[in-house]
């Protein structure tokens, strides 16, 4: 009996010692770089000001980077994680050259787009061999067009010719003059195009990557557990953003003090509409990025989505039930 009591005392002692050690442990310090103001930065701010990252023993220092993809992989020098999005040329070309940059998650927005076409075009498939007008290679309209073409069974790299035709109004004008035979248009410009006699095919929702969270494979190899905790904190920050509207708007106002309250609320609603509880990459949107780069670098044809993303940490959270526990109501992942 005495031996049993002694064993319990020893076990209790070591348990207390372990708890004391954990409580006294310093949070892991990380540097998070971001550019501009977009959905990824909004989640990062909420994670910082809402104390979400600290709940997972992560102490995050924010670093503003003026030109995210102008510096390419160089933007990751001096920081551990990078959040933002720009022309995918800056992301994929360094990977082709041997860089170990990798994306951990992707914010994807499903946006309605229509294809404006010449009068003799009956379907997107009829655009084979035709000229497609976009803003620029790797731009939003370019990525949208590539998704729409693949859905129609066309190869965006081989079956059509892409033309840099400028923004929406310029593309509408080019369509009206038959300088191009197709162009992706959002609802606003599709309505304007009809006034000029441009034929509009049925609009569809198209997935677009609006932000990426990136790191390097060497960072994962060096400190996988810290990366795991950071991703967990980021997903928890998404939950905070979606479920605490008032608090999240208040945090945004701190960073955008010069903006009007109504504008910030609109910004919040726009970001919230884009967010998914588990920001896994979208296959169509990712393939569109690869297709875009293939037009300027044939080596990108050998790239697979797995070369761009490491989704193991999100998959672990999904399998563990962590996300379901965060939300009161059932949601589709």
Description:
With 333 residues, the chain is an alpha/beta fold. The protein folds into 2 domains: 202 residues, Periplasmic binding protein-like II (D-Maltodextrin-Binding Protein, domain 2, 3-Layer(aba) Sandwich), CATH 3.40.190.10; 98 residues, Periplasmic binding protein-like II (D-Maltodextrin-Binding Protein, domain 2, 3-Layer(aba) Sandwich). Helices cover 47% and strands 19% of the residues. The protein is built from 15 helices and 9 strands. The strands form 2 sheets. Strands 1, 2, 3, 4, 7, 8 and 9 form a 7-stranded mixed beta sheet that branches. A two-stranded parallel sheet has the order 5-6. α2 packs across α10, α6 packs parallel to α7 and α10 crosses α11. The radius of gyration is 24 Å and the shape is globular. The N terminus is likely disordered.
List keywords for this structure.
single chain; 333 residues; alpha/beta; D-Maltodextrin-Binding Protein, domain 2; 2 domains; seven-stranded mixed sheet; 15 helices
> What do we call the CATH homologous superfamily of the largest domain?
Periplasmic binding protein-like II
Low-confidence stretches: 1-24
Distance linking N and C termini: 53 Å
The rounded Rg comes to 24 Å
Q: What is the overall silhouette?
A: globular
| Beta strands, count | 9
Helical residue percent band: 40-55%
The CATH architecture category of the largest domain equals 3-Layer(aba) Sandwich
Order of helices and strands: HEHHEEHEEHEHEHEEHHHHHHHH
Can you tell me the CATH topology of the largest domain? D-Maltodextrin-Binding Protein, domain 2
Beta percentage is 15-25%
CATH class of the largest domain: Alpha Beta
Number of helical elements? 15
